[in-house]
Amino acid sequence: MTSSLPMQAYVELEDRGIDLRLTLYPSFVLSLLQETGDGYVKIAGRSRGCVLRQTGGLVVSSCGEELTSYLSGLWYRDVFERASVKRSMSRVIDTLRLVYSPLSLSVDPLDPLHVFVAVFLSQTTNYHANVLSWTRRLWFQTNDPFEAATLASRVFSSFQVKRLPQAIECLPQVFNGDRYEVRRQLVQCPYVGPKTADAFLLYALADPTSPPVDRHFVTMASKLGMFAGLHPPRKEYCSKYRCEDCPLRDKCIRWRATRDLGELAGWVQTVFYVHDKTYCSRRLCDRCPLRSGCSDAYP
Asked: Does Nucleotide-binding appear among the keywords (predicted)?
């Protein structure tokens, strides 16, 4: 593959204990990468054709230092180390930080529209089985997210694909304002709900305070005794109010997660996704490192 930009010299960054493969697994950024024998090649967006790998305690990349930091999750290590949570959450979060310390947040704020394609297509379908297949086929034909959206609607038949062109056309109009205003405007876009908006804020705009409230988050929070009695955000309110002004905020999981977990909120959602896929959905309670705090663990 040829790069759309001149290839940059390789950079070597200390990996600071991250696991690159684990970090990329739950990230929508994975849709912009193709795995090779010992790493990844970027197949879409800025520095298309650059490579990224982890070896000998280093992240080695030709993607440039800034993009490498975002893709690898290294940008989040300082945030992860300084972030604090509400005291009532500290026991659970301390356990998560101990177990999942190598998992960081891979984001790409340099290619937000490319990330949006994967985020939007992930609605009610399997990310790894379907979305990665769709996006990789698209990126090998074009590096333009608008062209990819139009092409997808002609080639694939799923409802998400058919809706993508109308949704992505709305995006350039919603990048003004702080994160709550951007979120409100995002939810006003056709077919964009709160979960899609928050996934975009997290993975495309690098806002770690924005957790996408999906079934994995709700399920895991319930198992670990977090956010009892709260409900997921509702589109009709999210499109009308900024989070801090919403009359339902005190009953909303998303608002409470942001308030109580701060800059760890998006990371916790990512951990819940990985943990649910790795242990809970496979009924591996006997191997689960969170078993002692889980209300659903088998005896």
From this structure: no
Global pTM reads 0.94
Please, are residues 233 and 213 in contact by the beta-carbon 8 Å criterion? yes
Q: Which two tokens stand for residue 216?
A: 């994995």
Question: What is the distance between the alpha carbons of residues 77 and 18, in angstroms, rounded to a whole number?
Answer: 9
Contact 290, 224 (CB under 8 A): yes
Query: Which residue do the tokens 């058919």 mark?
Result: 162
pLDDT per position as a tens digit, 187-215: 999 999 999 999 999 999 999 999 999 99
Can you tell me the distance from the alpha carbon of 116 to that of 112, in angstroms, rounded to the nearest whole number? 6
> Which helix H or strand E contains 118, and what residues bound it?
helix 112-121
According to CATH, the topology of domain 112-203 is: Endonuclease III; domain 1 (1.10.340)
- Give DSSP secondary structure letters for 186-222: HHHSTT--HHHHHHHHHHTT--TT-----HHHHHHHH
Q: Distance between CA atoms of 283 and 60, rounded to whole angstroms?
A: 37
- Is residue 180 within 8 A of residue 237, CB to CB? The reply is no
